[in-house]
From TrEMBL:
Signal peptide as annotated in the record: none
Boundaries of every AB hydrolase-1 domain copy: 38-305
Gene3D superfamilies linked to this entry: alpha/beta hydrolase
One Pfam family, short name: Abhydrolase_6
Source organism of the structure: Fusarium irregulare
Membrane-spanning intervals of the chain: none
This protein's name: AB hydrolase-1 domain-containing protein
Superkingdom, taxonomy of origin: Eukaryota
């Protein structure tokens, strides 16, 4: 797994913001100036979901950070009303930008940050970049975007909710008020996020270390509206220059056995990006959209690409994409 003899240690940082302190996990090899990576979890998750990736990427020379959004993990906790009704996507964007600013200050001479977003976190990353393009005022430019089984640009709410129901209540919910997104038992977590052969210890670790108990209604409903457009996301990325390929901007990854954000959903999202590449101003006649936007599927992985049994394959494919 590692390019070094010893596995680098994961450091837990507390990032102070005007709203409250945010949990930021960091894993860094001294003296390395490759592009930093900022990872963002999905719904009901936290920074801990990326622990495998943190040490893997750092061992390959990439300073890697994983953020817990407000109300998640060990970040500051808001009241029930604030979480449920008042917290917005823009509040989450504030958290991401606070982490990005901190990383930029820590690595002033490094290449632009690469963003990594899983599930709802991937949707949120697309929202952030779309907003950046619209305002054209961000002090931080990002290099590339890795979308891990991410909510699509369209939001994908209807399809994702239907998939959730098929996973946890194939015969339908008993009552209209029956709880949704049930992740309380190992069996429920395995069914939604992992595979039958995923080790029990992985499931236990997610329940013990990674799980965030509840999500807000307002942010949850955001998946029923578009996060942004592919053109705006692409305009906000400066691209990653590789050794043998042209500038790359977006990597979309699906799990072959994902039942929540299916491979077909990821492919549909990729089509929007490929179409947008063809419309980019100044696009070279010799360049191809597949160089700017790449889509891959990880065999033998369910929704939780960062912890499922094929996580190392997924992490290696990300490194290969960045390095070109």
């Amino acid at each position: 797994m590692s390019e070094t003899a010893a596995t680098p240690a994961v450091e837990t940082l507390s990032l102070t913001t005007p709203s409250g302190d945010l949990e930021l996990l960091a894993c860094i090899l001294p003296g390395i100036q490759k592009a930093p990576m900022l990872c963002l979890h999905g719904a009901f998750c936290s920074a801990e979901d990326y622990r495998n990736f943190l040490t893997f990427f750092a061992s390959h020379g990439y300073p890697t950070y994983s953020l817990s959004l407000r109300g998640h993990g060990k970040s500051w906790q808001m009241s029930w009303m604030t979480r449920t009704l008042l917290t917005s996507l823009d509040n989450y964007v504030e958290d991401i930008m606070a982490a990005a600013s901190f990383i930029k200050q820590r690595h002033p001479d490094a290449p632009p940050i690469v963003l990594v977003g899983h599930s709802f976190g991937g949707g949120l990353m697309q929202y952030l970049l779309g907003q950046q393009s619209q305002s054209n005022s961000s002090p931080i430019k990002f290099g590339g975007l890795v979308l891990l089984a991410a909510a699509p640009l369209s939001g994908g709410g209807k399809e994702i909710m239907a998939n959730w129901e098929r996973v946890e209540a194939p015969d339908g919910y008993k009552y209209p008020w029956s709880p949704r997104s049930q992740l309380d038992t190992p069996e429920q977590v395995r069914t939604a996020f992992f595979q039958p052969e995923t080790p029990e210890g992985t499931i236990t670790r997610w329940l013990t270390d990674c799980k965030t108990a509840s999500e807000g209604i307002r942010t949850g409903l955001s998946v029923f509206w578009p996060f942004g457009t592919a053109s705006d996301v692409l305009k906000s990325l400066v691209g990653i220059e590789g050794q043998s390929t042209q500038s790359r901007k977006v990597l979309l990854i699906s799990g072959s056995n994902d039942r929540l954000v299916t491979a077909s959903m990821v492919e549909e999202n990729a089509k929007a990006y490929h179409a947008a590449v063809e419309r980019l101003p100044g696009k070279s006649e010799t360049s191809h959209s597949s160089e700017v936007v790449t889509t891959i599927s990880i065999p033998g992985s369910a929704h939780h690409l960062m912890m499922d049994i094929a996580w190392e394959d997924c992490a290696l494919r990300i490194v290969d994409w960045i390095e070109g």
